[in-house]
Design goal:
This protein has strands at 3-7, 10-13, 18-25, 35-39, 45-51, 57-59, 67-72, 77-82, 91-96, 114-119. The chain is mostly beta strands. Strands 2-10-9-4-5-6 form a six-stranded mixed β-sheet, with no helix packed on it. A four-stranded antiparallel β-sheet has the order 1-3-8-7, with no helix packed on it. Strand 7 and strand 8 form a beta hairpin. It is globular and about 40 Å long. The relative contact order is 0.31.
Length: 120
């Protein structure tokens, strides 16, 4: 069974940076894609970024060129480097294995997430 734990959130001023970490445990293989999601206050959870099979990453339009996803398969860690943060990035951030048919759906149980708050 795969378990994913998010960490690294915090309070940052607009324009600042944070790096989130997703640590995987259990029966996860390097072929498993990992995606980051976020849930804004009173909004549905939304896709942010995901790893791709060729080692690249795919991003939502709202974070492209500001967020960078990286993966250390040996350590089972996927990081999300966030720069030039905006108040609208304030959300609880989660990681999960995305469904191949619908990236908005995760295949394992959702963790607690990590809160990111960007002040203006």
């Amino acid at each position: 069974q795969v378990q994913l734990v998010e960490s690294g959130g915090g309070l940052v001023q607009a324009g600042g940076s944070l790096t989130l970490t997703c640590k995987a445990s259990g029966n996860i293989v390097s072929d498993n894609a990992i995606a980051w999601y976020r849930q804004l206050p009173e909004k549905q959870r939304e896709f942010v970024a995901r790893s791709a099979r060729d080692g690249s990453a795919l991003y939502a339009d709202s974070v492209r060129r500001r967020f960078t996803l990286s993966r250390d398969s040996a350590k089972k860690v996927v990081s999300l480097q966030m720069s030039n943060l905006k108040p609208e990035d304030t959300a609880v951030y989660y990681c999960n294995i995305p469904s191949p048919t619908n990236w908005n759906h995760g295949l394992v149980s959702w963790g607690q997430g990590t809160q990111v708050t960007v002040s203006s």
